[in-house]
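Example 5.3 — YCII-related domain-containing protein
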Amino acid sequence: MMFVANDSAPDTDQAPLPDIEAWVGDNDAAGRRITGDMLAAAEVATTVRVRDGKLLITDGPFAETTEAIVGFDLLECENLDEAIEVARAHPMARMGRLELRPFAFQDE
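Solution (predicted structure tokens):
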């Protein structure tokens, strides 16, 4: 899973950003990207917790932060190296950050 997040310290390189539509098209065509989408703004999120048996519902993200998950892509890559190369070409690698995380229980 690749979480797409904004970042308070984006890259300052003035080179043009990669085209997100080209990134999606290339990875869809190669069978590496299974699905993905943008998420609604963090301000409309609802955080649900249970503490001491009590339901706690908070509007917005749990933590006050300028960084938030803004989207996701479900990738199928041969290994972490391939996933890193896929993430490296995503525009948010420069403007935000990408977190790669395997599923906990994978068939080996």
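Remark. Residues 36 and 73 are 4 Å apart (CA to CA).
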